[in-house]
Amino acid sequence: MKGGVQDFAARGLDLRALAEQWMDLSEMVPGPGTLPLAVQPYGPEEVAEAIATLLDGRLTMGPKVATFERLWAAEVGAEHCVMVNSGSSALLVMLNALVALGRLRPGDEVIVPAVTWSTSLFSVAQAGLRPVLVDVHPDSLCLEGSFDRPVLAVHLLGQPARVQAPLVLEDACGAHGARIGEQPVGSIGSAAAFSFFFSHHLTTGEGGAITCSDAELADACRSVRAHGWTRERSDRAAQEASHAEIDPRFLFVTSGFNLRPTELAGAFGIHQVPRLRAFVQQRNDNHLDWCAAVADLGLPLRVFPQRPGTTHSGFAFPMLLDADSPLDRAELCRRLEARGVQTRPISGSNLARQPAFAAVPGARVEGPLPVADAVHTRGLFVGQSHAFGPAQRDLLVDALRSAFLC
Ligand SMILES: Cc1ncc(COP(=O)(O)O)c(C=O)c1O
């Protein structure tokens, strides 16, 4: 590729060797006696490609983003991929594009799980739709079953959500490589959003993408991503022909934002995609192994094993304290952190109990939320990574055992 690492190597500049010489590769594995939320998820290939991109003088979205989009669509089993600058932006673009096409109408209700990330909820309202929070299944912490309205199916922390609905949209921001049967998340619903934030299975630092197999929707996403204009649309020529009175260089056909990624994100992404399957395999192995090891301890907390017929992609490792646990969540987290195990609440926990909920236009709760409430007060997660293995499992097991002893 012009402006790529190979191109510079052919001209005598070995950027790969330079990056390898100057990077601290020990950052790519966890330090001894630690279980961090994430480790440095990129190596010399990504850094070399980023330098090549800068040396080539191309910082704004260009051919490396386009290459990444092709690679990611193929990986997910979707026909189209539209890269953006975050997972939150992917949700925003996907939902606004559906509204722009009239597939969702302003004021339509969209079911959202009560336990998810904040922007899963906000993006629905920001697209002029009304989010309806519904409780999650106690065994998966995801929505499960049939719904009579459009659903944002969040595959929480790597656990695939199995739903049926008139319109299924996936929030796969934290579930790259997860599967239902043989089908990868990202190709299950009508469209899906991914995040490539630092700690995710695949990272571009900040970044995200929409995947779908619908050319019209992909084109709408391309316009919503960038100013509402026609560049990068597959039907650009037809759009220009039907608005011949407007200068095609600045032709705006939908309402839009500017949520484009930089070319640096593409440079990172093209080197990450080929590694994803091995990463997901390791995360899945870890998840199964850790679930068994923690369950064997017989402590007053539960884990969330892989659901039958699915592949869990282990974004993080959630646990839920029993209601009668002698330790509360704050104390358990304090004791784990003291042993080098980093902890977090389970995403936004019960979003209906977050202060921001009252300010989300049109949002409401449907039905009781006992699982979300339990997660809110008793749930926590620790990190998971393809760089982890038995040493991190043993640390977790030991830290949990001793937390309940003292
Ligand atoms: C389920 C879910 N949705 C949306 C997001 C937002 O992604 P980003 O941080 O890239 O905006 C995240 C982030 O982890 C997430 O886990």
Number of domains: 2
Output mean pLDDT. Answer: 97
Principal-axes geometry comes out as globular
Radius of gyration: 22 Å
Strand content: 15-25%
What topology, given as strand order, has the largest sheet? 1-11-10-7-5
Residue windows where pLDDT falls under 50 for at least 5 positions: none
Named CATH architecture of the largest domain: 3-Layer(aba) Sandwich
- Provide the helix percentage: 25-40%
Order of helices and strands: HHHHEHEHEEEEEEEEEHHHHEEEHEEHEH
The biggest sheet amounts to: 5 strands, mixed
Determine and state the CATH class of the largest domain. Answer: Alpha Beta
CATH superfamily heading of the largest domain: Type I PLP-dependent aspartate aminotransferase-like (Major domain)
Task: Give the beta-strand count.
Answer: 17
Q: Tell me the structural class.
A: alpha/beta
Distinct compounds present: pyridoxal-5'-phosphate
List keywords for this structure.
13 helices, alpha/beta, 4-stranded antiparallel β-sheet, 17 strands, 2 domains, Aspartate Aminotransferase, domain 2, 5-stranded mixed β-sheet, Aspartate Aminotransferase, domain 1, 406 residues, binds pyridoxal-5'-phosphate
